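Batch 3, record 17
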Amino acid sequence: MNIPYRIQLDEEQIPTQWYNIRADMPEQPDPCLNPATGLPVTLEDLTPVFCEELAKQELDATTRYIDIPGPVREYYKMFRPSPLIRAYNLEKALGTPAKIYYKFEGNNTSGSHKLNSAAAQVYYAKEQGLTSLTTETGAGQWGTALSMAAAFFDMDLTVYMVRGSAEQKPYRRAVIETFGADIIPSPSKTTEVGRAILKEHPNTSGSLGCAISEAVEKAVSTPNCRYVLGSVLNQVLLHQSIIGIESKAAMDSIDEYPDIIIGCAGGGSNLGGLISTYMQDSLKGKSDTRFIAVEPASCPSLTRGRYAYDYCDTGKITPLERMYTLGSQFMPSADHAGGLRYHGMSPILSKLYHDGYMEAVSVQQTKVFEAAVMFAKHETILAAPESAHAIRTAIDEALLCKKTGEEKTILFGLTGTGYFDMQAYSSYLAGGMTDYIPSDAELEAGFCHLPNVELMRSASKV
Amino acid sequence: MNIPYRIQLDEEQIPTQWYNIRADMPEQPDPCLNPATGLPVTLEDLTPVFCEELAKQELDATTRYIDIPGPVREYYKMFRPSPLIRAYNLEKALGTPAKIYYKFEGNNTSGSHKLNSAAAQVYYAKEQGLTSLTTETGAGQWGTALSMAAAFFDMDLTVYMVRGSAEQKPYRRAVIETFGADIIPSPSKTTEVGRAILKEHPNTSGSLGCAISEAVEKAVSTPNCRYVLGSVLNQVLLHQSIIGIESKAAMDSIDEYPDIIIGCAGGGSNLGGLISTYMQDSLKGKSDTRFIAVEPASCPSLTRGRYAYDYCDTGKITPLERMYTLGSQFMPSADHAGGLRYHGMSPILSKLYHDGYMEAVSVQQTKVFEAAVMFAKHETILAAPESAHAIRTAIDEALLCKKTGEEKTILFGLTGTGYFDMQAYSSYLAGGMTDYIPSDAELEAGFCHLPNVELMRSASKV
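Prediction for the assembled complex:
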């Protein structure tokens, strides 16, 4: 079979339903807890923060397939199906017998897969009659995606952007502003939690955890406003399942099945989406595909974190999730892969990893950029630093195949483009980039802040 | 017929031949002249500057179809066929009865159509055994495209980047450097012509004309090196014909034929490519499609220039082309559409315009950005300022249809994305953008420098 370079599905092949992986998990992730009581959150707990339909999706562990609303699917037509690409030129450059495929989610203005969930979330908010939304953004891809969807569905939006990213990426800010959203670098003085964080860490470059706290506070204190989140949550993995469903349809069309699936993992939205239907096969014992999460060595939640209940934010105002975490007070170094600098990990992915269905590796950023530059020269695509983590591991696995002679089929997620990350590329090219690995003592300090759920429960009973 | 949002051809539908429009022109453009003699250039005149195969293509007015070399077509597979998009959402927002289509050339890392010619030019240079190339770049899209192709085919490259653009777009520079090319802001002290220009205009922000002079000087003074150009030339329009061939194949597949074709025009590479096969129909009397070139009011070569022999560069070291020109000494204002700031226009397009086969309009940049922002909000794509000139006129034509009730079919070229032009978008959003229209006196001053070909001829005979 003559496999084209780009395997491009037709518009009619855009999925009509998302896939909810929880319906097929042998064991469910532990429930999300209300920090006031230590008890599982209810729909009533969530709806003041999230829009109702999204809150329902968050709690729905049984509905296997959920219809994609018509207007969301219409919106998807502007950038989906995204191409599955056979990396012929990278294979040749590596001299590997492995076949390398990547699902490229960067061919839209947000530059990433984030638009898949953004469109859905803004649509549901509009349907509910809300007038504004708040969110946080790290690297800026989620903020861009959400501003695009908000512009399209005519919804006001305030984006709390991690200060370090906002300063590194003025043009990313400008894109978000072009689509009409307000940007506030975080931590800021616009919220109580922001002011408190600034008081304690006046020179902080911020983190996703801080920005989440601020966005949530702003949402609950503004009438007819809700908070939306671009990763970590079950609802986001649900929407992102479209990546995996399309990948499988495209690979099926050329009679391919991956031996290894690789994705970068910050909060887990891309990886959770990419593996979706393939993990379904694996959970049902139909395949023995290896699933590999790739995280930065500077923020190693899966590989060096604890599997414990923790807050999703630094300000400790969100519900608690049981997940792999470095502790909500962990402040990652000013790494360039802003989108992977999150202390926790999707509870679904954490559970799959904990139960042995998934592997995880951590990689150092200089090796990541080395891979990204090589990839660009041979495959023409300039990857986002986040996505380049997956490229690094895909190359490593392909080189392993070269050693062993195995003709494995590798699929990785190329989540986005790096046009707004050129400062990082310049720093790498100039030899000014350093690697950072937190010490055990630093991690221990982070773990000290993990909440004691038992104590919460007894305290609330008093 | 249910027309999808994105009309996506298959890989096998990538054209196997380029189309040479000169073979069908009733009258040929006047020949390119050797400035030393005032006589038509020969292959021998061109080959010290251009690589041989490209020089042959430059002079070939009769071969209607030219085979695309296998490795170039292989390279095209990484980003072609590019999508033809039905702007359903823009149509709806405008409330127009017109059907609007755009051929989107921005879905590759160079962010534009420039990669079509870059791949061909680097390939031919490699085949000839050259070891390095030089070029100029304005907005940076050509420089990026060429650096990508040079990295892939393993060829050294020096890019003279218009100083204003280089300063406005540090991240564009970083992309070019990531692909391994050397960048020199122009005018520079690395060439005689650069030093002379700097002496006369020490604070100049440069122009494409200056940068061309420097790149040519560098090429002819470096062993085994040649100069390549991203627009204006016949060879470039030949390579870019792939845009039009694909557009026609895609529109044919949905039984559509454009009443109006619109493209932005700086040197003419995109417009010449977009109209190619449609102009063939028109020249043969098979259609009455209107072709509209859109240029910035600040640099109006077609609408206010002279149809005359002129140098292609500021330093007056290139051959003379008969074209619409503002004079090689015309220094355009620091407009944001760097890619359209060129004093001349493709000789082929100039001839077609002169003979009445094509129209031209000029638009002001604030109106261009207004259109670009509207387009982004409804179609999700953030256009390059250059491309947005075509959007402006497409919207204007669609609004005219709204008035008259005519259901016209409009096709425009969306040549590229604006990720590296966010400074311009920010300036527009902040209300800090101004329009500039050169006065008649300014234009007259430019025309004073037009060379006297008769004088050249008699002088060379003495």
